[in-house]
What we know:
The structure is a single chain. The protein has 4 helices and 11 strands. The chain has an 11-stranded antiparallel sheet. A hairpin with a 4-residue loop joins strand 10 (about 185-195) and strand 11 (about 200-210). Helices cover about 15% and strands about 35% of the residues.
Amino acid sequence: MSRAVVAAIEGGHGRPNIFRMKQTFFRRLAPLLVLFGLTIGGPAAAPAQEIGGDGALLRSIEQYFDGFKTLQARFTQYAQDGSTADGMLWLKRPGRFRFEYAPPNDILLVGDGTWLIFYDAAVDQVSHLPLNSGAPRFLTAEKIRFGGDIGVTNIERDNGMIAVTVVDRTEPGSGSLTMRFEENPMVLREWTVMDAQGQATRVVLRDIQYGPDLDNDFFYFTDHDRKKDFRVGTYQ
């Protein structure tokens, strides 16, 4: 399986469930925990020093997110070891997302607002992990706002692109999320998750569609999903 899956930054919760998994399933799941920041050992990286940032720029990014509640896109994911994975994703605020990985990676990730549900169809194994912090919480928040629990640690501008790095103040040292936007017009093009051990996973978006009609049932894991042909997206 490709060493890549989606992005976000959660803390190290849910460990007992992880260690009860069969060894084969755990080996397949472990790289995905890096992507979601669910680290299982090692020292935590020091939190970045917070900066003041550009208030007007951050407000414009907030207004961009305010402009849609649902999103569909294709993505390519790049892991630090050089491996890649393609797929489709759907987001619905607040709190819901679905990531499908294209063949040969038989992986489905669903966020139902409470749980991150990981399904590996190749071995027919399901895991539920708490979804209570990090990039999924930030990107699917009802109102995306900088400040409060979301600390801005870096802002860069280069050739019409903006990079904004944030950390979760409720999970010091858990890692960071860097989002890259095209500035004019404002479009989220990619994000990179850096976990507490310094492992980076990058997700690049394309074919973005705003405002698709997505029922909440689309973001639940059901018996219909627990099969080899769980995908609803189209893949070449």
